[in-house]
Amino acid sequence: MVNLIIDNRPVSVPERTTILNAAASVGIHIPTLCFLKDINEIAACRVCVVEVEGYERLLTACNNPVAEGMVIHTDSHKARIARKANVELILSQHKMNCPVCVRSGNCKLQKVANDLNVHDIPFETQLTGRRSDIHFPLIREYDKCIKCMRCVQVCDKIQDSHIWDVINMGAQTTVAVGEGEVRHLKDSSCTLCGQCIT
Fold first, then answer.
1. Model pTM score
2. DSSP labels for 115-182?
3. Cβ atoms within 10 A of the Cβ of 72, count?
């Protein structure tokens, strides 16, 4: 067992337990966006950052294991500021039409943004303007994509279809059909399961 302190509470968990799971084991909630247990544990969103004594930088809780003697602060000022900035960056590339969105009220991004008191986006909005083929049965709203990569992982690990891939870097990062030379979903081997849009 590994012994550590999370938010002034002693915690004892098995080796290789993530910070996220260690915190959850004692009822401490750390926000996440991209995390899907055993499927997507890649810290793409960086919303789960925590402060660990002795470390200069913040650590992501969803994919970093605990270590003996760690002292972790899940809700420190430094962690909250970083989380808020990360959500603001995500929202700067997200179509903000929440009142008419079908996910409004049942949206993890909306909940996390509200919990972090995100009211204004201090960054320039950078929407792709990329449109889905409305004549194809599966319609993806690319300007709502938060680059969490859940769709890529679900398609790969659950459906075993390997349709999606992440392309480009930085602000140009996007999810696209990644089957060799195929560049359109309608030309891919997609089975229309719909898992990538849920």
1. 0.87
2. HTT--S--S----------TTSSS---GGG-----HHHHHHHHTS----EEEES-GGG-EEEE-STT-
3. 27
- Side-by-side strand order, sheet with 71-73: 9-13, 2-6, 71-73, 49-52, 59-60
**CA atoms within 13 A of residue 145's CA, in its CB half-sphere:** 27
Say which residues have a Cβ less than 8 Å from residue 120's Cβ, sequence separation at least 6.
none
Tens of pLDDT, residue by residue, the chain (198 residues): 999 999 999 999 999 999 999 999 999 999 999 999 999 989 999 999 999 999 999 999 999 999 999 999 999 999 999 999 999 999 998 888 888 888 888 899 999 999 999 988 888 888 777 777 777 788 778 888 888 899 899 999 999 999 888 888 877 888 888 766 667 788 888 888 888 876
For the record, the structure tokens of 114 come out as 């509200």
In the chain, domain spans: 1-127, 128-198
CATH of 128-198, one of 3.40.50.620, 2.40.50.140, 3.30.70.20, 2.40.50.840: 3.30.70.20
Find the largest Cα–Cα distance for the chain.
57
